[in-house]
Specification:
This protein is of the alpha+beta class. The chain has 2 domains: 78 residues, Ribosomal protein L6 (Outer Surface Protein A, domain 3), CATH 3.90.930; 82 residues, Alpha-Beta Complex (Outer Surface Protein A, domain 3). It is 21% helix and 38% strand. The strands form 4 sheets. The protein has a 4-stranded antiparallel sheet, with helices on one face. It has a 3-stranded antiparallel sheet with strand order 1-6-5. A 3-stranded antiparallel sheet has the order 2-3-4, with helices on one face. β2 and β3 form a beta hairpin. The radius of gyration is 21 Å and the shape is elongated.
Length: 179
């Protein structure tokens, strides 16, 4: 049995949870999230807590136990507090701006890169080089952040590129001089 799967999920008072055998729906002040539950699991709802339990101990059920506990936990945290992700642009002339429902990135290409902002994600650009993403769905937030970062991955020689806040790039020494 999963050690993470056994842990109970504390539900804040401002979050409403509706669960049946097929799905669970979490509703809070920042939105509503829903996910399907596999047949080998079920969710017990007690006073202020949720516990994910196994129906049977098949390999598939025990493998999904911890995963679905964390997915439900992320849903509860997301609708009550929201998740934040910061990206930093490092490089000469790298800039970002928001125009309507799209994010415009100038990353040294001959053209600006225009990305459509997905539904449910809010984007804020600070000082032209810091992008802050906010959403209640952690999966969508991570995917959009990875899509932005994929346009200019950090390179190891000068450290230029798009970095997550707090990300450390192992720098390499350049070519040594003539011998």
């Amino acid at each position: 049995m999963s050690r993470i799967g056994k842990l109970p999920i504390k539900v804040p008072s401002n979050v409403d949870i509706t669960c049946n055998d097929l799905a669970i729906m979490v509703k809070g002040k920042f939105g509503t999230l829903e996910t399907k539950i596999p047949d080998s699991l079920y969710v017990e709802q007690n006073a202020g807590t949720l516990v994910v339990r196994l129906k049977d101990t098949t390999n598939n059920g025990s493998a999904l136990h911890g995963l679905y506990r964390m997915l439900i936990y992320n849903m509860v945290v997301g609708v009550s507090e929201q998740f934040k992700l910061k990206l930093n642009l490092k490089g000469v002339g790298y800039r970002a701006s928001v125009q309507g429902k799209s994010l415009i990135l100038n990353l040294g290409f001959s053209h600006p890169v225009e990305l459509a902002i997905p539904e449910g994600i809010s984007v804020e650009v600070q000082q032209n080089t810091t992008i802050q993403l906010t959403a209640c769905d952690k999966e969508k937030l991570g995917l959009f952040g990875a899509e932005i970062k994929s346009w200019r991955l950090p390179e190891p020689y000068k450290g230029k590129g798009i970095l997550y806040e707090g990300e450390i790039i192992n720098r390499k020494a350049g070519k040594s001089g003539k011998k």
